[in-house]
Specification:
single chain; 164 residues; alpha+beta; five-stranded antiparallel β-sheet
Length: 164
Amino acid sequence: MDQERAAIDQPVLEAARVVAVEAGGAWLESEGQSGCANCREGRGCGVSVFQRLFRLPRHRLYLPTEEALSVGDHVVIALSQRAVLTASLWLYLAPLVGLLVGALLTEMLFAREGLTVLGAITGLAGALLFVRGRQQRQARSGAFFPVLHEITLRQADESPNKAS
């Protein structure tokens, strides 16, 4: 049990490049990983194939930090694995539950196919609005923001530095 808890508390590390700097933080862009490890090995769900075919935009994320970063710096960021799992559950499970509950309740009350579909869509929309509100509250709390793990390449002096 302690090993499982320790594994969940391990951070997820990701290489990124600084694309914009603001007071109090920086905007980062992923360094080109396409999909999960299985996708990169050709055994996964195919997200990397769609990214290559349709040239999907890279994901940008905000890193709150007081570290002096410059556009072009390469960094490694860390995010709690617990935060990733929690966010995934809310993003995938809550809408599914909303869809099913909406459909089941409407079916039990009215027993008409058209209304059941409408109930499912309403349940899905309600769950998505709930998740959006929850996500906004979590964004304000800062609990799901990444932290700077290390600076691997400075644009100005090109010497690797560790961030504390």
